[in-house]
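Supplementary Note 3. Input sequence used for the single-chain structure prediction.
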Amino acid sequence: MMNGWMGGDYGMGWGGGLGMALFWIIAILVVVVLVRFVLGRSRTGAGSVREESALDLLKKRYARGEINREEYERMRRDLE
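The predicted structure, written as discrete structure tokens, is reproduced below.
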């Protein structure tokens, strides 16, 4: 005759099936948040490749000696 919270309905305390459903909803949300965090971090992390601007590429070409100062200045003015 002991029903309810402390009774013979094992696992059915704390709202019955509602407690179990709430547990699974929270567990799934935690997994989703962790996956999105990890994937988002891998896309924008320190090792990610960002698209370089035309001016960045021009500076690299000048630094490598592919173009001279006059060409660099002319191209830089064109870009700005």
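The two ends are 85 Å apart (CA to CA). The first helix runs from residue 17 to 44.
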